[in-house]
Amino acid sequence: MRNIALVTGASSGMGKEFVREISKKYKGLDEIWVVARRRERLRELKKEIIGTRVRILPLDLMKEESFERLKMVLAKEQPVVRILVNASGYGISGSFEHQTEEDAAGMIHLNCEALTRITYLVLPYLRRGSFIYQMASSAGFAPQPNFTVYAATKAYVKSFSIALRQELSYQGIRVIAVCPGPVKTEFFDRAYEQEEVKFYKKFVMAAPKKVVRKAIRDARKNKAVSVYGMTMKVIRVICKLLPGRWIAKIMGK
Ligand SMILES: NC(=O)C1=CN([C@@H]2O[C@H](COP(=O)(O)OP(=O)(O)OC[C@H]3O[C@@H](n4cnc5c(N)ncnc54)[C@H](OP(=O)(O)O)[C@@H]3O)[C@@H](O)[C@H]2O)C=CC1
Ligand SMILES: CC(=O)[C@H](N)C(=O)O
To answer: InterPro entries under this entry (predicted)?
Structure first.
């Protein structure tokens, strides 16, 4: 029986960092399966990882055939998935009306639908003691004008993860919603292509390695949500205390 970890969004940012950390921190894994569109990036990562085999699955999770392919590979290999990390995702900032229809729908497609389908496909291969890391965001704590669709997708991921965690707790499978604030990755190149990254985001920008290490520690403590940094923890409490429409008003200004 082969024990594996499956990481989506592994070609950059937090997905890539998860692969690095998993290879060091989880003993007894035979393989790490890495998913993203950029094959070259995945090859570079494979070369870097020592001690655990890396299997490259160059898949576009916006395309139907990718799910068929993953389903087939899982059915053929019959692995035990010890860790699933859903880190593929993107965001586009700016007002809803100035966004392209493709992007507005695309964020929902990748951040919500693909993440849900991957979780569903992998579920039969998880066992007692397995972990699911879902990349949500602090953007999921409250509605965010000018990041409207993105924040809504992350509210979905957070809600989905917390409910699923409860459902799977009886099988001894742990689900954690990872909810960092701004993290220094390529995410911002695409998200803020049309405008400057907000100064307060630059101010609290975290290193991906620290966010991922904290997520792994929190998952081991069986936490439902992982939030990196004091600022984001305070923001989370504020978002719990104030009505969403107030937060939206403040953020909108
Ligand atoms: N950076 C931040 O501040 C924060 C990010 N997050 C969330 O964390 C997750 C990871 O983000 P981060 O690491 O920052 O971003 P990156 O842009 O660095 O990484 C995104 C990953 O998603 C993959 N991806 C994008 N589109 C597709 C697709 N169609 N099919 C398959 N894979 C795809 C990319 O690979 P490729 O292009 O090769 O396909 C890449 O590996 C996202 O869900 C993001 O929303 C949450 C909180 C904060
Ligand atoms: C990109 C993110 O998800 C981050 N939490 C932010 O709000 O900037």
So the answer is: NAD(P)-bd_dom_sf, Sc_DH/Rdtase_CS, SDR_fam
